[in-house]
Structure formats: structure tokens, C-alpha cells
Amino acid sequence: MNTACVYAAFDVALTCGSGFGYIVFVEILIRMFRPDIVDRKNKVKSVPAENILESYDYVVIGAGSAGSVLANRLTENGDDKVLLLEAGDDEPLFSDIVALQPAIAAIEKYNWLFKAEPSTSYCLAMKDKRCPVSGGKVLGGSSVHNDMIQVRGNRKDFDTWRDMGNPGWGYEDILPYFKKSEDMRIPSYRNSPYHGTDGLLTIERIRSGNGLTNLFLDAVVSLGYKVLDTNSNTQTGCEKIQYTLRDGLRCSAAKAFLRPASHRRNLVVSTNSLVRKILVNKTTKIAYGVRFSREGKDYTVHAKREIILSAGGILSPKILMLSGIGPKQHLEDMGIEVVHDSPGVGRNLTNHAYVGGLIFSIDVPSNRTDLDTPRTITSSSLRNFMENKEGLLYRTQEEAVGYLISRHADRSQDYPDIQVFFSTTVGDTYNNPSADATNFNSKRDSRISVSKKNRNKRFFQMNTVDSRPRSRGYVELIDKNPDQDPKVVFNYFDDPEDMKTSIRGIKLAMKISRAPVFKQLNARFNPKPIRGCAKFAAFSDEYWECLVRYNTMSAHHYVSTCRMGPPKDKWAVVDSRLRVHGVQGLRVVDASVMPAITTGNTNAPTIMIAEKASDMIKEDRKMYASYA
User: Fold this and answer.
1) Measuring CA to CA, which residue among 589, 620, 616 is closest to residue 605?
2) Would you give the distance in Å from CA 368 to the centre of its chain?
């Protein structure tokens, strides 16, 4: 095939700007130039449906961040056969390119792309006032299209889990599992007692950065914070982000954990397999099998030892409820026979909502090319990536992060309540109509964005996050059809304190933008008010509250819908060993079991949970009889 023709076709597809048609040409070029990405030798192969056995020792539902870990660790013992069921397909080749994250996240084949219920108090800039609900439908789950940010959380988060009645989940208990996963390649962190270097999940910094990132760090330091390793003993401060990358490419959970186990004979992976229900003996309350559909046909498989549900914070409660495990009244309303009344299933939904649209324009001297913010997706950057393994396609949306404290009186406590992300790639993210509409479900005329005529000007952006929101939502069924999307209600800002914290976060971002290093560049906030907020005085608390309610963005950190806790906690769905209360032979292992949300992104804690769960399952192995 003529390479020049492929690049020319890419240019045409990119210029047309209709969807992500250019992706097909990216994949062609990857196959031509990047065998390291194709990785034919280690790619996970789905077993033909007719070769699926009647029973396995363990059946794992969901091949996301948690399920990928479980599949690897549980097959380390060659005697145990594991079936891994995944509703999606294999991860696409282009998902390795970090600059294309908005594209992979916007493609329905790899993302569930649910919509939350309409709201009158948040997500007001969204179509039908419905927040998007993202979730990985692919081997590797959401780790295939998340922002790759490696954040463990704060030590107090885990001590709180322990103190809520979950022994073994304090910070000192779980730190070894964070280290176990890590293949830390940031040179200054490799000898740290807080990091591991022998794990399967590679951690790096991005190859292609922007000089503005250093200015952000300088600005945060001017407020009295330090640049430090925020995944060590102290979190309060700032740093260039630690990413789940390997050689500058995305290191998804599938790449890290599934591919190394792909040749094990005792691991069987079945993709495009939608779980319809978990089968539980109504008399003995023992989970014994899973019913799933694949290629239009239903199958039933039995578990000799355990069924492990790892479908995530939205789908794990859905599957439990379809299986008769959940709030009794709701199940009866749906016409589902109640196997076990568990009021907490689907309740306590918690998510980080962040404030979008904090975009600042700057004036940069012509000699400061290091501060350029060029468009990353061009034919020249693609050629550089393919043929030289360098350039702008190794660049991410966010480059630095700060964990800050919005109340001065709390500065003595290492428990930051605000997370601030700094981005220099505004042009690509906010001018791709397909990514904007799909990832954010936004109406074009209601979000603060960079106009077409200003695409070549220089900007930076800060996104602020309330690290520990108090508001709680829920997940329910709409009906008992497994193919129906779940009902998701976030209830953002239901607790007034969450709005106050969000406004304080915006004020912190504005303060950072006024630091001396940014004053030299004449940094200024977009003065044009978003539609719906013009009636409020510019930059007043009322205006900021309006902005928050319009530009409510989801971090897609869905936790606590199958909360861990002791039997006396009526909202607890699983115990401290992640076994479902009231049902034998069934565990939940994913972000849904978190008793409370962590301070920061949730992918790393989810992997930690699966690492720890794998050890607990192995420890409990002899306690379980065969339930075939």
C-alpha cells in the first residue's frame, strides 16, 4: 500500500471533521509501522463459543481494571481454570496513542455511553440536561479510554475504610498491593519505599510536554505548596502527572495483566458476552452459575468455586438486581423474584464531578516556542509518531495536577479537598464536535469553549474537582430486560456543602491564574458568560454556582454502589473479604465496593482492590466446597 496515499487520506478525513473517520487510516499506519503496538504474539484471543466448557473453577464477570487483575492472579495456580466474560471486544490498536483519548472514549463500540436521568440542578448544558455515563465495554474496561492518571488516594481514605468496619483495609494494609502492581519507571521514584518496580502496570511520565506545565507548578508553589510525589506519604502539593504508560503508549489493564497471561491454558476469555444474570440456588443461597448471551445465543456456565462480579460501579449493581439480589421493593416492582434482600445494592452512588470551562487565554512572546500549544492531531504529527516514535501524539490532555486545600484552617492536615488538573491541549479537546458532543453530551451553544477563529491562539485550562463529595445518587433498573440501560441518578450538589467546595475550587484556580508567572503572560479568563448565567454579576458566587450547574462534568469515578461493610451496616453489600452478604460463592471486586470515594482518580485503587481480593480468594480457596 502507498504510504503517501494513506497520509493524504488521513488529511482529507481530518479536514472533513465528520466524526472519527480518520481513525481507520491511523490503524492502517500502525499495522505498517508499529509492530510494537500490534503485539500479535501477546494479543488476547477470545475462545470460540462452542469451546466454552460447562464449568470452571472461577467465573469472572467483566474484564476491566479489576477483572484483568483477577484473571491474571487466579491463573497463576495452574490447577484453577478461570473463565473471563467481557461484554465488549478487544482494545483497538489506536487506543495506545494517548493523544487520541477523546476519540476512543467517544466510540460506542468501546464505551457503554449511558445517559443519566434528566436533572434540573446540574448538567444543565447537556442535551436534555442528562449527564453522560461513561464505562469501558472492551478488554481492559475503562482503562482503555480513561486519562491514564495514576492516583492512589490519600492514606486517610483507607484508614476511614478500616474504621467503617472493614479490617485489613487501612493504609498500611493496602500499600503493599499498590506497590505489587507497579512497574515504576520514573527515575526519581524507583528507589522510593512507596513504589514498586517488579509489577505488571507500568508508570511513566509523558514524553512530549509543554513549558506551560512548569509555570503551573511554579504558580502552585507560589501559593505555599510543594512539588512532590503525590503517591507517597504526603499527597498535598503538586507534580507532573504519573501515568499508566509504557514506552509512551497507553498501558491499559488488559495490556498490563491480561496479555502476560494470555498463553495460560487455564485462562479462557470470552468477549462479546453479555451477562444476563447470576444463578443462585434459592434454598441454599449459593451462587452456582452465570447465564450470558453471545452472538445471539444464550449460554449457561457453572462455577465450581466462586463467581466474581467485576462489572464496575454501574453494571455490577445492575447484574445483582437482575439476579434477584438487591432492594426487595424495587425488585418486586420490576417483577424480579427476590433471592436476597440487600437494600444497599445500587445505593450510595458517588462520583467526582468537576467544573469544566475554566479556559484562560495568554500572550506568549514569539521566542518562547516551548510555550506553544499546537494542535496535536495532524498528518505531520502522525508521521512523526509512526516513523520516528516521537512527537505530539505522545501528549495527553492534562499534564500536571495539584492536590490543594481550599480552607486555610485545614492547611495543617494532609487531606486536600480540591484536585486541580492543568491542561495545555485545549484546541484539540474543545474543537472536535464529535468528541465534544459524545463525551460531554453538550449543547454547542451553552458551554464555554474555544471558538473556531481562535483555534490557533494560545490557551491553558484548569479543571477543578471536589475530592470527596457528600452527595449520593443511585442506580436502579428500568425493567427486567438485561439489554435495557440502567437508571442512573447522580444527585450532584444534593448536599449544599458540595457546591460550596466547588466554588472554592474555582476561586483557587483563578488565584493560580493570577500568580506572577501567569501575569507575565497576561493570563485572562474567558469573559464571555455562558448562556444562562449572564444574569449574574461576573465572577460572583452566584455566577460560579451557575457555571458549576451548567458545566457539570463527570470524572466517571462511579463507586460505593455495592459498598463494603459489616453485617450491621444495612447499606453494606459485601463484607471485608468482598463476599456478598447472604449469598455464598459470590464476590464483588471492583470500584463499587469502596465504602467511600478516594481523594483522586479511582483506577489505581480499583486495581489495588483486585490485587488484594486475589490474595483473599486464594486464602479462602480451601474453605469452599465444589458447588457444581
Assistant:
1) 589
2) 35
**Can you give the pTM of this predicted structure?**
0.95
Alpha helices in 475-540 (DSSP H): 496-513, 516-519
The distance from CA 590 to its chain's CA centroid, rounded to whole angstroms, is 12
Question: What number is the average pLDDT over the span 158-173?
Answer: 98
**Element spanning 4, H or E:** helix 3-16
What pLDDT, on a 0 to 100 scale, did the predictor assign at position 415? 96
DSSP 423: E
Q: Which DSSP state fits 48?
A: P
Q: What is the identity of the amino acid at 86? A: E
DSSP state letter for 255: I
C-alpha cell at 240: 507532573
Nearest to 235 by CA among 158, 173, 162: 158
Answer for the pair 374, 206: CB distance below 8 angstroms, yes or no.
no
* pLDDT value for 424: 87
477-497 residue pLDDT tens? 999 999 999 999 999 999 999
Q: Which of 433, 426, 424, 397 is nearest to 20 (CA)?
A: 433
Catalytic choice (145, 352, 557, 581): 557
Whole-angstrom distance, CA of residue 165 vs CA of residue 567: 9
Opening angle at CA 133, ends 130 and 135, nearest 5? 165
pLDDT in tens, 99-132: 999 999 999 999 999 999 999 999 999 999 999 9
On the question of pLDDT at 210 being above 50, the answer is: yes
Contact 250, 244 (CB under 8 A): yes
Residue 146, Cα to own-chain centre: how many angstroms? 5
Residue 557 catalytic? Answer: yes
Q: Report which DSSP code applies to 254.
A: I
